[in-house]
Amino acid sequence: VLYLGSATGTTPSHVSDIVGEEGLVFCIEFSPRVMREFIERCLPHRKNMIPILADARFPVSYRMYLTEVDVVYADIAQPFQSKIVADNADVYLKSGGWVVQAIKAMSIDVTKEPSETYRREIEHLESRGFGIENVVHLEPYDVAHAFLVAIKK
């Protein structure tokens, strides 16, 4: 799994448990301070997590650390989230692999209604060759957030 936006490691540690000892989770995080906390919290307990301090907007910059992956999981608070996801998938995701994306509408564009942002993110992934399998809106638990699952055609 390529995990974009690993933060301090809470959700990536659950992904680590799911893939088990035979799987790997490549964890991309941009902030050195947050990555330090991730390393302290997760690595003593999970041997299948690979921390990578890098900017997810530039997937080729961490190419030397990764292999081809089955899943790209994105939990990033950035404009152009689906572009970042698709760019990473183009480099690392196997054909027939899965994308799981947390769409944070207000992090993408605060001037648009969340539904418009969701539509644009979905359309971008479709235009890049992904089939959307499911979209779940996370309200009332997370306002203006949706969770998307797609497959690389």
Summarize the structure.
The protein is of the alpha/beta class and 153 residues long. Helix content is 33%, strand content 31%.
Describe this structure in words.
The protein is of the alpha/beta class and 153 residues long. It has a single domain, classed as Rossmann fold (3-Layer(aba) Sandwich), CATH 3.40.50.150. It contains five helices and seven strands. It has a seven-stranded mixed sheet, with helices on both faces. Helix 3 runs parallel beside helix 5. The radius of gyration is 15 Å and the shape is globular. The model has no long low-confidence stretch (mean pLDDT 94).
C-alpha end-to-end distance? 18 Å
Task: Provide the domain count.
Answer: 1
Helix content: 25-40%
Query: How do the strands of the widest beta sheet line up side by side?
Result: 3-2-1-4-5-7-6
Which secondary-structure class do the elements indicate? Answer: alpha/beta
Number of helices: 5
Q: What oligomeric state do the depicted chains represent?
A: single chain
Strand content: 25-35%
CATH domain fold name: Rossmann fold
CATH homologous superfamily annotation: Vaccinia Virus protein VP39
Number of DSSP strand runs:
7
**Level-1 CATH class name:** Alpha Beta
User: Which series of helices and strands comes N to C?
Assistant: EHEHEEHEHHEE
CATH architecture level-2 label: 3-Layer(aba) Sandwich
Radius of gyration: 15 Å
The biggest beta sheet reads: 7 strands, mixed
Mean pLDDT: 94
Shape: globular
Low-confidence stretches: none
